[in-house]
Amino acid sequence: MLFPAIFALIVGLGMIGQWIMSFITEQIPELETEPFRIWFHIAGEMITALALILSGIGLLAGWTWAAILFLIASGMLIYTAIVSPGYFAQQGKWIWVVIFSILILISGYSIISVGRGILT
Question: CA 115 to CA 81: how far, in whole Å?
C-alpha cells in the first residue's frame, strides 16, 4: 500500500500548502464577500487534508486502522474533487478541472488497492 500512502501524504500536504499560499497571497476574495461559506469550505478541506496525512502515515507504519481511515479520507477527497472544480471552471481555469479529474482517477485506483488489502 505504498502508492496510496504516498498519494495521501502528497495530496494532504498539497491541500494545506495551497490554502496557505492562497491566504498569504490574498487570493481568497470570498473572505470579504462570503466569509462564512469560505471558512466552512476551508475547514472541510483541512479536515480532509489531515485525514489524508494521518492515513498516509498510518499506511506507511502498518497500523491496522489506517486502511479504513484512508477509505474515508479518499471519499472526502473525491467529494472535494467533484465540487471544487466548478469554482475554477467559472473563472476559465480549465487546468484545475483537469487536475481535479486526475485526482479522482488516482483516488479510485488507490481505493481499489487499499480495499483489496483489507479483503485479503
Answer: 20
Q: What are 64-68's contacts with CB under 8 Å, separation 24+? A: 67/1, 67/114, 67/117, 67/118, 68/118
> Do 46 and 16 meet the contact criterion of CB atoms below 8 Å apart?
yes
Return d(Cα 73, Cα 69) in angstroms, integer: 6
Nearest to residue 34, comparing CAs of 87, 89, 80, 91?
Answer: 87
- Tell me phi and psi for residue 63, to 5 degrees: -70, 135
CA torsion sign, 106 to 116 to 16 to 90? Answer: positive
The stretches in the chain having pLDDT less than 70 are: none
Q: Please tell me the predicted confidence (pLDDT) of residue 120.
A: 76
Return the pLDDT at 58.
Answer: 98
Cα–Cα separations (whole angstroms), residue 74 to 10, 32, 70:
13, 31, 6
Work out the burial of residue 62: count CB atoms within 10 Å of its CB; fewer than 13 is exposed, 13-18 middle, 19 or more buried.
exposed
